[in-house]
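Reviewers of the previous submission asked for a worked example of the structure-prediction workflow described in the proposal, so we include one complete record here. The input consisted solely of the amino acid sequence. No template or homolog information was supplied to the procedure at any stage.
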Amino acid sequence: MEFADVVRRRRMVRAFDGRPVPGDVLDRILDLAVRIPAAGNTQGLDLVVLEGAETARYWDVSLPAERRRDFPWPGLLRAPVLLVPVGDPSAYVERYAEPDKVATGLGTDPDAWPVPYWYVDTAFAAMVALLAAVDEGLGACFFGQFEHESALKASLGIPADRCPVGTIALGYADPLGDRRSFSAARPRRSLESVVHRGGW
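From that input alone, the workflow returned the following C-alpha cells.
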C-alpha cells in the first residue's frame, strides 16, 4: 500500500471480530513502532503488549463488568491485542545530563523540560503503530486511560514513574459492528485554514 493511502485510510476502529493477530504481523507493527525519532536518541520508550485472554486484565480495571452493559462500543472489547506505549521521563533527564547534552539544562529534573519529550516521542510510536496496523490490513483505535491510569499501571506492572500515553486496540475490524463516534462527524478544517506559510 502506498504511504498516502495508509494515512488516508487510517481511522479509529471501535469494533473487532476477535480473530487473533498473527505473531509475525504483530511483530512487524512493533518493530516499526520503535523506529521513531527520539530526543537525543534517548530511547525512553517501552511497549506493553497484551494478547488474547491477557486483555481481560486491562478491561477488568478500566471497564468493570457493571459498566459494560451501557458501553457504546462493545466490539472494542473483542480486540485481540492491546498495546500501551509508555515513556520514561528519567531516561530523558539522564540522557540530557550526559556531556554532549548537559549545556541544555534539561538533565536536572523532568520539570526543567518546557515540552516533555517522553510524551512526544511515545506519541510518535503510537502514531507509527496506528499506521502500521492499516498497512497490515488491521483496524486500530487509540484511546486514553484517564482516571484509570494509576490502577492500570499497577495491574500491568508498569513502574509508577513511567508515563503511558494511552492504549491502542489492534485487530481485524468488524465492519458490521463498528460505528463511528460523534466526533468523527465533525468537519475537517481546510488545508488553507491550517497551513500558515511564511508565518502565522
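The two ends are 35 Å apart (CA to CA). We consider this example representative of the routine output the project will generate in years two and three.
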